[in-house]
Amino acid sequence: MDTVSLLMGGFSEAFSPMNLLWVFLGALLGTAVGVLPGMGSSMAVALLLPITFSLDPTAAFIMFAGVYFGGLFGDSTMAILVNTPGGSTAIATSFEGHKMALSGRAPQALATSAIGAFIGGLVATVLVVFFAPKLAEFAILFGPAEYFALAVFAFLACSAVVSDSLIKGLVSLIFGLLVATVGIDGISGTQRFTSSIPELFDGISIITITVGILALGEVFYKIYERKRPIPTQHRKITGTARLSFSDFKEALPAWLRGTSFGVPFGVIPVGGAEVPTFMPYTTERSLDARRKKPQFGHGAIRGVAAPEAAGNATAGTAMGALLAMGLPTSATAAIMLAAFQQYGIQPGPLLFERNADLVWPLLASLFIGLFVLLILNLPLAPMWAKLLLIPRHYLYAGIAVFCVLGVYATSPSVTDLLLVLGIGFVGFLFRRYDFPLAPVMIGVILGPLAETSFRNALLSSGGEYSILWGSSITWVLYGMMFIVLIAAGYKHYSNLRSARR
């Protein structure tokens, strides 16, 4: 009961008029920054960090609570509407969310995103309040071998499931892995595929790759499509931001499954919410493949629901790992850690005792921020959706400009601008010849993690490969991978038999 009483005390302070204003402003500004290509929630927190130094710590972190979740929703808004994720955590959402928008269901896609974000964030925040120490202990179970098994599972499962052609899925994955190897090797210090260009020593930015493959690739593909009749589905928007009972019934299991993926990943330092958003997306797609009439590829609502719930669940438990252990498991959490240190506060086991007057209002404001976002964004969803009514040539010209500005804002380099154009052309070719984009992004995001984990595992074991499958967690992951591959192989075999008939 002490936890409940402390949380109620936090609510009493967070519900003061000024603190409610800071939560509202944080949610609004986080959403606004999140919709800009290449920005995202981490950039929103970073941009707002200097202007909060004039506030007292409680007000500053209550504002950050709104920014924290608002940025994630903003990331997804443009991913759904124009296939331009504000951040890498919304990449998985863009695949089915944008198809829903093109079929005139943008308000429903945005509502699915908002409700999924609310459910995932709410469940995670409740767990943080009551079980933060236990959640943090879960992270200790993952070593290099477990990370490598997780990455391999994601590689093969995604490549096998997302495309009717296994070869095309593997080609996309290999391209993503090759792009991920550009730069200086973190272990040996040697240059790889840099052509001695200094700007490539740190590798190719995930923002450059995301904007190029998804956003500019989409722009180039729409230009190519101009010789065809413009589909009327680009011009109509149906319905409101309310989900029908059938839509809600369809999305609910995906919200819950996505949340179950996101909760544990928030305390595992894999670098952000990209991994736990792709995992439920791949799971939902594999489940959908068993249906008589698969919906993925045509705007499946579960392809939006699961990644959104997972992303916000990860963000919620990442805050728990930061507060309870001082462990930043994402870029946004790392910036939040810097903010804590700026105020002379060190997150960790003693934080709840030494700074209880800050922690509990902050946790209470996380709950408030989720409700504010739901109240703020559900009515605004039809307004966001009207972006699709802008004439297509103006809309995509504006997207191209924002893409270039977003890349240049994060890295003022001509090399990055040339790279985003080149990668955008590759994205166009992938779209043109029906190569899936999800394996590309999986390879880019998880490639460095897989390589580093593989090499660290071998270094720690003296070159014994048995360490890669020596724990119960790795056996579970490889077992799941085997099941997915068998199911995918059967699916492809059935498709070939049907095609021959």
From TrEMBL:
The chain crosses the membrane at residues 20-39, 46-71, 109-132, 138-162, 169-188, 200-221, 321-340, 360-381, 393-408, 414-430, 437-454, 466-490. Residues 20-442 form the DUF112 domain. The keyword Transmembrane applies. The keyword Transmembrane applies. Keywords: Membrane, Transmembrane, Transmembrane helix. PANTHER family: TRICARBOXYLIC TRANSPORT PROTEIN. This is Tripartite tricarboxylate transporter TctA family protein. It comes from Corynebacterium suranareeae. The gene is tctA.
